[in-house]
Amino acid sequence: MTQPQANIGVVGLAVMGSNLARNLASREGNTVAIFNRSYEKTATLIEQHPEAGFIATSTYEEFAAALQKPRTAIIMVQAGRGTDAVIDALTQVFEPGDIIVDGGNALFTDTIRREKAVRETGINFVGAGISGGEEGALKGPSIMPGGSAEAWQTLGPILRSIAAVAEGEPCVTHVGTDGAGHFVKMIHNGIEYADMQLIAEAYDLLRRVGGLTPAEIAEIFAEWNTGELESYLIEITAEVLKQVDATTGKPLVDVILDQAGAKGTGAWTVQSALDLGVPVSGIAEAVFARSLSSKPAQRAAARTLPAGSQEWTVDDRAAFVEDVRRALYASKIIAYSQGFDAIVAGAEQYDWDIKKGEIAKIWRAGCIIRAQFLNRITEAYAADPELVALVTAPYFADAVAGALPSWRRVVSGAALAGIPTPTFASSLSYYDGLRADRLPAALVQGQRDFFGAHTYRRIDREGTFHTLWSGDRTEISAADAH
Ligand code: 6PG
Q1: pTM higher than 0.90 for the full model?
Q2: pLDDT score, position 139
Q3: Which of 26, 182, 187, 324 has the most crowded CB, counting CB atoms within 10 A?
Q4: Ligand 1: nearest atom to the Cα of 261
Protein backbone atom coordinates (compact mmCIF):
# COMPACT_ATOMS: atom_id res chain seq x y z
CA MET A 1 0.00 0.00 0.00
CA THR A 2 1.30 3.46 -0.91
CA GLN A 3 2.09 5.92 1.89
CA PRO A 4 -0.44 8.71 2.39
CA GLN A 5 0.91 11.83 0.72
CA ALA A 6 -1.24 14.74 1.86
CA ASN A 7 -0.86 16.72 5.09
CA ILE A 8 -4.20 18.47 4.57
CA GLY A 9 -7.45 17.81 2.74
CA VAL A 10 -10.29 19.96 1.46
CA VAL A 11 -13.86 18.74 1.07
CA GLY A 12 -16.19 20.86 -1.08
CA LEU A 13 -14.76 22.44 -4.19
CA ALA A 14 -17.06 25.33 -4.99
CA VAL A 15 -15.27 28.68 -5.42
CA MET A 16 -14.26 29.17 -1.76
CA GLY A 17 -13.15 25.54 -1.36
CA SER A 18 -11.18 25.46 -4.64
CA ASN A 19 -9.47 28.72 -3.84
CA LEU A 20 -8.58 27.64 -0.32
CA ALA A 21 -7.23 24.34 -1.67
CA ARG A 22 -5.11 26.24 -4.20
CA ASN A 23 -3.89 28.59 -1.47
CA LEU A 24 -2.89 25.60 0.68
CA ALA A 25 -1.17 23.89 -2.22
CA SER A 26 0.84 26.99 -3.06
CA ARG A 27 2.53 27.04 0.37
CA GLU A 28 5.82 25.28 0.99
CA GLY A 29 5.44 21.88 2.58
CA ASN A 30 1.73 21.37 1.91
CA THR A 31 0.30 18.57 -0.19
CA VAL A 32 -3.46 18.79 -0.53
CA ALA A 33 -5.97 15.97 -1.00
CA ILE A 34 -9.26 17.10 -2.49
CA PHE A 35 -12.75 15.65 -2.50
CA ASN A 36 -16.08 16.81 -3.83
CA ARG A 37 -19.46 15.07 -3.76
CA SER A 38 -19.57 15.02 -7.55
CA TYR A 39 -16.20 14.08 -9.04
CA GLU A 40 -16.66 16.48 -11.95
CA LYS A 41 -15.55 19.49 -9.91
CA THR A 42 -12.51 17.60 -8.64
CA ALA A 43 -11.54 16.68 -12.19
CA THR A 44 -11.94 20.26 -13.40
CA LEU A 45 -9.78 21.62 -10.59
CA ILE A 46 -7.02 19.09 -11.27
CA GLU A 47 -7.14 19.90 -14.95
CA GLN A 48 -7.09 23.67 -14.49
CA HIS A 49 -4.40 23.68 -11.82
CA PRO A 50 -1.84 20.95 -12.47
CA GLU A 51 0.76 23.13 -10.71
CA ALA A 52 -1.06 22.59 -7.39
CA GLY A 53 -0.13 18.90 -7.30
CA PHE A 54 -3.50 17.98 -5.79
CA ILE A 55 -4.26 14.43 -4.83
CA ALA A 56 -7.70 13.77 -6.28
CA THR A 57 -9.97 11.36 -4.46
CA SER A 58 -13.39 10.11 -5.42
CA THR A 59 -14.64 8.48 -2.21
CA TYR A 60 -14.36 9.39 1.46
CA GLU A 61 -12.32 6.20 1.97
CA GLU A 62 -9.80 7.28 -0.67
CA PHE A 63 -9.73 10.76 0.83
CA ALA A 64 -8.95 9.39 4.31
CA ALA A 65 -6.31 7.05 2.89
CA ALA A 66 -4.57 9.95 1.16
CA LEU A 67 -4.09 11.88 4.41
CA GLN A 68 -1.16 11.56 6.81
CA LYS A 69 -2.06 11.17 10.51
CA PRO A 70 -3.38 12.99 12.33
CA ARG A 71 -5.63 13.48 9.32
CA THR A 72 -6.73 17.08 8.86
CA ALA A 73 -9.59 18.04 6.58
CA ILE A 74 -11.21 21.41 5.97
CA ILE A 75 -14.86 21.29 4.97
CA MET A 76 -15.89 24.10 2.63
CA VAL A 77 -19.54 23.43 1.92
CA GLN A 78 -22.57 25.66 2.30
CA ALA A 79 -23.47 25.96 5.98
CA GLY A 80 -26.43 23.87 7.06
CA ARG A 81 -27.45 20.28 6.56
CA GLY A 82 -24.73 19.67 3.98
CA THR A 83 -22.15 20.29 6.70
CA ASP A 84 -23.70 17.64 8.96
CA ALA A 85 -23.70 15.11 6.10
CA VAL A 86 -20.00 15.67 5.38
CA ILE A 87 -19.11 15.49 9.09
CA ASP A 88 -21.00 12.17 9.36
CA ALA A 89 -19.17 10.76 6.35
CA LEU A 90 -15.76 11.89 7.61
CA THR A 91 -16.28 10.51 11.11
CA GLN A 92 -16.91 7.09 9.48
CA VAL A 93 -13.48 7.06 7.83
CA PHE A 94 -11.38 9.15 10.27
CA GLU A 95 -9.84 7.95 13.55
CA PRO A 96 -9.42 9.38 17.05
CA GLY A 97 -6.91 12.25 17.02
CA ASP A 98 -7.83 13.30 13.46
CA ILE A 99 -9.18 16.80 12.86
CA ILE A 100 -12.25 17.97 10.98
CA VAL A 101 -12.41 21.71 10.33
CA ASP A 102 -15.62 23.42 9.25
CA GLY A 103 -14.53 26.51 7.32
CA GLY A 104 -18.05 27.60 6.36
CA ASN A 105 -20.19 30.34 7.90
CA ALA A 106 -21.84 28.01 10.42
CA LEU A 107 -24.04 29.26 13.22
CA PHE A 108 -21.84 29.03 16.33
CA THR A 109 -24.46 27.09 18.31
CA ASP A 110 -24.40 24.44 15.55
CA THR A 111 -20.64 24.36 15.92
CA ILE A 112 -20.94 23.86 19.69
CA ARG A 113 -23.37 20.99 19.07
CA ARG A 114 -21.18 19.41 16.38
CA GLU A 115 -18.00 19.74 18.41
CA LYS A 116 -19.63 17.94 21.32
CA ALA A 117 -20.93 15.12 19.13
CA VAL A 118 -17.69 14.64 17.18
CA ARG A 119 -15.57 14.77 20.34
CA GLU A 120 -17.30 11.59 21.53
CA THR A 121 -15.68 9.72 18.66
CA GLY A 122 -12.23 10.97 19.73
CA ILE A 123 -11.97 13.05 16.57
CA ASN A 124 -11.34 16.79 16.95
CA PHE A 125 -13.84 19.20 15.45
CA VAL A 126 -12.87 22.80 14.78
CA GLY A 127 -15.26 25.49 13.60
CA ALA A 128 -13.18 28.10 11.81
CA GLY A 129 -14.51 31.40 10.53
CA ILE A 130 -12.80 32.31 7.27
CA SER A 131 -13.17 35.81 5.94
CA GLY A 132 -12.01 37.48 2.77
CA GLY A 133 -14.31 36.23 0.05
CA GLU A 134 -13.01 34.40 -3.00
CA GLU A 135 -9.83 36.42 -3.29
CA GLY A 136 -9.03 36.09 0.40
CA ALA A 137 -9.46 32.32 0.24
CA LEU A 138 -6.97 32.21 -2.63
CA LYS A 139 -4.40 34.75 -1.52
CA GLY A 140 -4.73 34.87 2.24
CA PRO A 141 -7.87 35.13 4.40
CA SER A 142 -8.31 36.12 8.01
CA ILE A 143 -9.02 32.91 9.91
CA MET A 144 -10.87 32.55 13.21
CA PRO A 145 -10.60 28.97 14.46
CA GLY A 146 -12.25 27.59 17.58
CA GLY A 147 -11.93 24.02 18.85
CA SER A 148 -9.53 22.34 21.23
CA ALA A 149 -5.98 23.41 22.07
CA GLU A 150 -4.86 19.95 20.92
CA ALA A 151 -6.30 20.46 17.44
CA TRP A 152 -4.73 23.92 17.29
CA GLN A 153 -1.27 22.34 17.75
CA THR A 154 -1.58 20.57 14.41
CA LEU A 155 -3.76 23.10 12.69
CA GLY A 156 -1.94 26.26 13.74
CA PRO A 157 1.08 25.94 11.41
CA ILE A 158 -1.12 24.97 8.44
CA LEU A 159 -3.52 27.88 8.95
CA ARG A 160 -0.67 30.29 9.60
CA SER A 161 0.82 29.25 6.25
CA ILE A 162 -2.28 30.34 4.29
CA ALA A 163 -3.53 33.33 6.27
CA ALA A 164 -3.18 36.95 5.26
CA VAL A 165 -0.25 38.75 6.82
CA ALA A 166 -0.52 42.11 8.59
CA GLU A 167 2.68 43.85 9.59
CA GLY A 168 4.53 40.53 9.50
CA GLU A 169 1.93 38.64 11.58
CA PRO A 170 -0.39 35.97 10.15
CA CYS A 171 -4.06 36.84 10.57
CA VAL A 172 -5.06 33.76 12.53
CA THR A 173 -5.24 32.96 16.22
CA HIS A 174 -6.85 30.26 18.32
CA VAL A 175 -9.95 32.25 19.26
CA GLY A 176 -11.26 29.90 21.95
CA THR A 177 -12.85 26.46 22.37
CA ASP A 178 -15.76 24.89 20.44
CA GLY A 179 -17.91 27.58 18.78
CA ALA A 180 -15.72 30.59 19.65
CA GLY A 181 -14.29 30.93 16.15
CA HIS A 182 -17.64 30.92 14.42
CA PHE A 183 -19.05 33.27 17.05
CA VAL A 184 -16.31 35.81 16.37
CA LYS A 185 -16.75 35.38 12.60
CA MET A 186 -20.46 36.06 13.07
CA ILE A 187 -19.70 39.29 14.93
CA HIS A 188 -17.22 40.17 12.18
CA ASN A 189 -20.08 39.88 9.71
CA GLY A 190 -22.37 41.95 11.91
CA ILE A 191 -19.78 44.72 11.92
CA GLU A 192 -19.44 44.22 8.16
CA TYR A 193 -23.18 44.87 7.75
CA ALA A 194 -22.96 48.06 9.85
CA ASP A 195 -19.87 49.29 8.04
CA MET A 196 -21.48 48.72 4.63
CA GLN A 197 -24.72 50.43 5.61
CA LEU A 198 -22.84 53.42 7.08
CA ILE A 199 -20.92 53.82 3.84
CA ALA A 200 -24.18 53.56 1.91
CA GLU A 201 -25.78 56.27 4.07
CA ALA A 202 -22.74 58.52 3.53
CA TYR A 203 -23.03 57.96 -0.22
CA ASP A 204 -26.75 58.77 -0.17
CA LEU A 205 -26.14 62.06 1.63
CA LEU A 206 -23.28 63.07 -0.65
CA ARG A 207 -25.48 62.36 -3.63
CA ARG A 208 -28.85 63.73 -2.52
CA VAL A 209 -27.70 66.65 -0.40
CA GLY A 210 -24.24 67.33 -1.82
CA GLY A 211 -25.46 66.95 -5.39
CA LEU A 212 -22.40 64.90 -6.32
CA THR A 213 -22.31 62.25 -9.04
CA PRO A 214 -21.31 58.64 -8.35
CA ALA A 215 -17.99 59.28 -10.13
CA GLU A 216 -17.32 62.32 -7.93
CA ILE A 217 -18.28 60.38 -4.82
CA ALA A 218 -15.92 57.60 -5.93
CA GLU A 219 -13.11 60.15 -5.82
CA ILE A 220 -14.14 61.30 -2.36
CA PHE A 221 -14.10 57.71 -1.09
CA ALA A 222 -10.71 57.13 -2.69
CA GLU A 223 -9.49 60.23 -0.87
CA TRP A 224 -11.03 59.08 2.43
CA ASN A 225 -9.21 55.82 1.93
CA THR A 226 -5.91 57.60 2.43
CA GLY A 227 -6.82 58.72 5.96
CA GLU A 228 -8.25 57.35 9.21
CA LEU A 229 -11.11 55.67 7.32
CA GLU A 230 -8.70 53.59 5.26
CA SER A 231 -10.30 50.18 4.81
CA TYR A 232 -11.16 47.54 2.26
CA LEU A 233 -14.86 48.48 2.24
CA ILE A 234 -14.13 52.16 1.56
CA GLU A 235 -11.68 51.14 -1.17
CA ILE A 236 -14.14 48.85 -2.97
CA THR A 237 -16.93 51.40 -2.62
CA ALA A 238 -14.87 53.81 -4.73
CA GLU A 239 -14.50 51.03 -7.33
CA VAL A 240 -18.21 50.20 -7.31
CA LEU A 241 -19.18 53.87 -7.71
CA LYS A 242 -16.75 54.34 -10.59
CA GLN A 243 -18.24 51.50 -12.58
CA VAL A 244 -20.25 52.42 -15.68
CA ASP A 245 -22.92 50.05 -17.00
CA ALA A 246 -21.87 48.73 -20.41
CA THR A 247 -25.41 48.54 -21.85
CA THR A 248 -26.87 51.86 -20.70
CA GLY A 249 -23.79 53.98 -20.15
CA LYS A 250 -25.19 54.96 -16.74
CA PRO A 251 -23.36 54.61 -13.45
CA LEU A 252 -23.76 50.92 -12.60
CA VAL A 253 -25.06 51.78 -9.13
CA ASP A 254 -28.07 53.41 -10.81
CA VAL A 255 -29.12 50.28 -12.66
CA ILE A 256 -28.68 47.88 -9.73
CA LEU A 257 -32.01 47.05 -8.07
CA ASP A 258 -32.04 48.73 -4.65
CA GLN A 259 -32.99 45.63 -2.65
CA ALA A 260 -30.13 44.31 -0.51
CA GLY A 261 -29.76 40.58 0.03
CA ALA A 262 -28.46 38.80 3.10
CA LYS A 263 -27.40 35.27 3.87
CA GLY A 264 -28.18 35.55 7.55
CA THR A 265 -24.99 36.16 9.51
CA GLY A 266 -25.98 39.77 10.28
CA ALA A 267 -29.35 38.63 11.60
CA TRP A 268 -27.61 35.94 13.69
CA THR A 269 -25.40 38.62 15.24
CA VAL A 270 -28.45 40.60 16.28
CA GLN A 271 -30.36 37.54 17.48
CA SER A 272 -27.40 36.46 19.61
CA ALA A 273 -26.90 39.97 20.92
CA LEU A 274 -30.57 40.09 21.94
CA ASP A 275 -30.10 36.83 23.82
CA LEU A 276 -26.97 38.17 25.48
CA GLY A 277 -28.64 41.53 26.24
CA VAL A 278 -26.06 43.54 24.30
CA PRO A 279 -27.31 46.65 22.46
CA VAL A 280 -25.79 46.24 19.00
CA SER A 281 -28.15 48.91 17.69
CA GLY A 282 -25.98 50.02 14.75
CA ILE A 283 -25.64 46.47 13.50
CA ALA A 284 -29.36 45.85 14.01
CA GLU A 285 -30.29 48.96 12.02
CA ALA A 286 -28.01 47.82 9.22
CA VAL A 287 -29.74 44.43 9.12
CA PHE A 288 -33.17 46.10 9.20
CA ALA A 289 -32.17 48.56 6.47
CA ARG A 290 -31.55 45.57 4.19
CA SER A 291 -34.92 44.09 5.18
CA LEU A 292 -36.72 47.37 4.52
CA SER A 293 -35.08 47.70 1.12
CA SER A 294 -36.31 44.22 0.22
CA LYS A 295 -40.01 44.94 0.78
CA PRO A 296 -41.07 46.17 -2.69
CA ALA A 297 -44.82 45.97 -2.06
CA GLN A 298 -44.65 48.03 1.12
CA ARG A 299 -42.28 50.51 -0.47
CA ALA A 300 -44.55 50.91 -3.49
CA ALA A 301 -47.58 51.46 -1.25
CA ALA A 302 -45.72 54.03 0.86
CA ARG A 303 -44.09 55.93 -2.00
CA THR A 304 -46.80 58.61 -2.09
CA LEU A 305 -46.74 59.30 1.64
CA PRO A 306 -45.82 62.89 2.46
CA ALA A 307 -42.25 63.78 3.39
CA GLY A 308 -42.99 66.91 5.44
CA SER A 309 -39.36 67.70 4.94
CA GLN A 310 -37.30 70.83 4.51
CA GLU A 311 -34.84 71.61 1.77
CA TRP A 312 -31.25 71.07 2.93
CA THR A 313 -29.09 73.53 1.08
CA VAL A 314 -25.37 73.20 1.34
CA ASP A 315 -23.42 76.43 1.08
CA ASP A 316 -20.00 74.98 1.67
CA ARG A 317 -19.75 71.64 -0.06
CA ALA A 318 -16.28 70.81 1.23
CA ALA A 319 -17.43 71.41 4.81
CA PHE A 320 -20.48 69.21 4.21
CA VAL A 321 -18.33 66.39 2.82
CA GLU A 322 -16.10 66.64 5.88
CA ASP A 323 -19.17 66.51 8.16
CA VAL A 324 -20.30 63.30 6.47
CA ARG A 325 -16.82 61.80 6.76
CA ARG A 326 -16.67 62.53 10.47
CA ALA A 327 -20.18 61.20 11.06
CA LEU A 328 -19.17 58.03 9.25
CA TYR A 329 -16.03 57.62 11.32
CA ALA A 330 -17.81 58.19 14.64
CA SER A 331 -20.62 55.77 13.72
CA LYS A 332 -18.07 53.20 12.63
CA ILE A 333 -16.37 53.43 16.02
CA ILE A 334 -19.75 52.75 17.63
CA ALA A 335 -20.30 49.69 15.40
CA TYR A 336 -16.96 48.22 16.44
CA SER A 337 -17.53 49.14 20.07
CA GLN A 338 -20.88 47.34 20.02
CA GLY A 339 -19.38 44.36 18.18
CA PHE A 340 -16.64 43.98 20.78
CA ASP A 341 -19.25 44.28 23.55
CA ALA A 342 -20.99 41.30 21.98
CA ILE A 343 -17.71 39.38 21.86
CA VAL A 344 -17.12 40.07 25.56
CA ALA A 345 -20.65 38.98 26.45
CA GLY A 346 -20.40 35.83 24.31
CA ALA A 347 -17.06 34.92 25.86
CA GLU A 348 -18.57 35.29 29.32
CA GLN A 349 -21.68 33.31 28.49
CA TYR A 350 -19.88 30.43 26.79
CA ASP A 351 -16.73 30.48 28.89
CA TRP A 352 -14.31 31.36 26.11
CA ASP A 353 -11.00 33.03 26.81
CA ILE A 354 -11.12 35.45 23.90
CA LYS A 355 -8.32 38.01 23.64
CA LYS A 356 -9.98 41.11 22.21
CA GLY A 357 -6.71 42.67 21.10
CA GLU A 358 -5.81 39.48 19.20
CA ILE A 359 -9.14 39.55 17.40
CA ALA A 360 -8.52 43.13 16.26
CA LYS A 361 -5.07 42.03 15.08
CA ILE A 362 -6.31 39.15 12.94
CA TRP A 363 -8.88 41.47 11.33
CA ARG A 364 -6.16 43.83 10.10
CA ALA A 365 -5.69 41.98 6.81
CA GLY A 366 -7.48 39.41 4.70
CA CYS A 367 -11.00 39.96 5.97
CA ILE A 368 -13.81 42.13 4.66
CA ILE A 369 -13.72 44.62 7.55
CA ARG A 370 -9.94 45.06 7.40
CA ALA A 371 -9.15 48.62 8.31
CA GLN A 372 -6.32 50.78 9.42
CA PHE A 373 -7.91 51.63 12.75
CA LEU A 374 -7.92 48.02 13.98
CA ASN A 375 -4.40 48.70 15.24
CA ARG A 376 -5.92 51.34 17.49
CA ILE A 377 -8.34 48.73 18.89
CA THR A 378 -5.46 46.36 19.68
CA GLU A 379 -3.64 49.23 21.40
CA ALA A 380 -6.73 50.16 23.40
CA TYR A 381 -7.13 46.62 24.76
CA ALA A 382 -3.39 46.33 25.38
CA ALA A 383 -3.47 49.55 27.42
CA ASP A 384 -6.52 48.38 29.36
CA PRO A 385 -7.50 44.71 29.03
CA GLU A 386 -10.57 45.37 31.21
CA LEU A 387 -11.81 48.21 29.00
CA VAL A 388 -15.60 48.20 29.47
CA ALA A 389 -16.48 49.90 26.18
CA LEU A 390 -14.18 50.56 23.26
CA VAL A 391 -15.69 53.99 22.69
CA THR A 392 -14.43 55.08 26.11
CA ALA A 393 -10.77 54.31 25.28
CA PRO A 394 -8.90 57.64 25.03
CA TYR A 395 -8.11 57.39 21.30
CA PHE A 396 -11.70 56.57 20.33
CA ALA A 397 -13.29 58.95 22.85
CA ASP A 398 -11.19 61.76 21.37
CA ALA A 399 -12.02 60.75 17.82
CA VAL A 400 -15.75 60.75 18.58
CA ALA A 401 -15.51 64.03 20.50
CA GLY A 402 -13.89 65.64 17.48
CA ALA A 403 -16.66 64.33 15.23
CA LEU A 404 -19.62 65.25 17.42
CA PRO A 405 -20.64 68.62 15.91
CA SER A 406 -20.45 67.11 12.42
CA TRP A 407 -22.29 63.97 13.48
CA ARG A 408 -25.14 65.97 15.03
CA ARG A 409 -25.40 68.25 11.98
CA VAL A 410 -25.58 65.27 9.66
CA VAL A 411 -28.17 63.32 11.65
CA SER A 412 -30.40 66.32 12.37
CA GLY A 413 -30.02 67.63 8.82
CA ALA A 414 -30.98 64.26 7.38
CA ALA A 415 -34.01 64.04 9.68
CA LEU A 416 -35.20 67.47 8.55
CA ALA A 417 -34.57 66.68 4.91
CA GLY A 418 -36.37 63.34 5.11
CA ILE A 419 -33.35 61.25 4.21
CA PRO A 420 -33.08 57.96 6.09
CA THR A 421 -29.86 57.49 8.04
CA PRO A 422 -30.85 54.67 10.40
CA THR A 423 -27.32 53.61 11.28
CA PHE A 424 -25.85 57.12 11.65
CA ALA A 425 -28.82 58.14 13.80
CA SER A 426 -29.04 55.05 15.98
CA SER A 427 -25.29 55.14 16.60
CA LEU A 428 -25.55 58.74 17.78
CA SER A 429 -28.51 57.88 20.01
CA TYR A 430 -26.55 54.97 21.44
CA TYR A 431 -23.65 57.30 22.19
CA ASP A 432 -25.96 59.80 23.88
CA GLY A 433 -27.65 57.02 25.81
CA LEU A 434 -24.39 55.58 27.01
CA ARG A 435 -23.02 58.90 28.23
CA ALA A 436 -26.28 60.07 29.85
CA ASP A 437 -26.22 60.91 33.51
CA ARG A 438 -29.82 59.79 34.00
CA LEU A 439 -31.94 57.77 31.59
CA PRO A 440 -35.73 57.63 31.39
CA ALA A 441 -35.34 53.95 32.26
CA ALA A 442 -36.41 55.08 35.73
CA LEU A 443 -39.85 55.85 34.33
CA VAL A 444 -39.99 52.50 32.56
CA GLN A 445 -39.27 50.83 35.90
CA GLY A 446 -42.11 52.82 37.45
CA GLN A 447 -44.48 51.72 34.68
CA ARG A 448 -43.43 48.09 35.08
CA ASP A 449 -44.02 48.25 38.77
CA PHE A 450 -47.42 49.94 38.25
CA PHE A 451 -48.93 47.36 35.95
CA GLY A 452 -47.08 44.24 36.96
CA ALA A 453 -45.57 44.75 40.40
CA HIS A 454 -42.21 44.07 38.78
CA THR A 455 -40.46 46.10 41.51
CA TYR A 456 -37.63 48.60 41.22
CA ARG A 457 -34.46 49.60 43.03
CA ARG A 458 -33.81 53.05 44.50
CA ILE A 459 -30.88 55.39 44.15
CA ASP A 460 -30.70 56.07 47.88
CA ARG A 461 -31.36 52.73 49.58
CA GLU A 462 -30.45 49.08 49.12
CA GLY A 463 -33.22 46.60 48.42
CA THR A 464 -36.06 45.97 46.02
CA PHE A 465 -39.23 48.05 46.20
CA HIS A 466 -42.82 47.98 45.13
CA THR A 467 -45.25 50.85 45.40
CA LEU A 468 -48.92 50.35 46.26
CA TRP A 469 -49.91 52.61 43.35
CA SER A 470 -53.64 52.87 43.94
CA GLY A 471 -53.42 52.81 47.70
CA ASP A 472 -51.76 55.25 50.01
CA ARG A 473 -48.67 55.61 47.73
CA THR A 474 -46.29 54.27 50.30
CA GLU A 475 -43.54 52.10 49.02
CA ILE A 476 -42.72 48.82 50.63
CA SER A 477 -39.92 46.45 50.02
CA ALA A 478 -40.61 43.64 47.58
CA ALA A 479 -39.82 41.05 50.18
CA ASP A 480 -42.65 42.45 52.30
CA ALA A 481 -44.95 42.83 49.34
CA HIS A 482 -44.97 39.22 48.23
C1 6PG B 1 -16.42 37.37 4.59
C2 6PG B 1 -17.83 37.70 4.26
C3 6PG B 1 -18.50 36.50 3.72
C4 6PG B 1 -19.78 36.82 2.98
C5 6PG B 1 -20.99 36.78 3.86
C6 6PG B 1 -21.87 37.97 3.90
O7 6PG B 1 -16.07 37.62 5.72
O8 6PG B 1 -15.71 36.90 3.72
O9 6PG B 1 -18.52 38.14 5.38
O10 6PG B 1 -18.63 35.58 4.75
O11 6PG B 1 -19.69 37.89 2.19
O12 6PG B 1 -21.64 35.66 3.39
O13 6PG B 1 -22.88 37.80 2.99
P14 6PG B 1 -24.33 38.45 3.06
O15 6PG B 1 -24.16 39.90 2.86
O16 6PG B 1 -24.98 37.78 1.86
O17 6PG B 1 -24.99 38.06 4.31
Answers
A1: yes
A2: 97
A3: 182
A4: 16
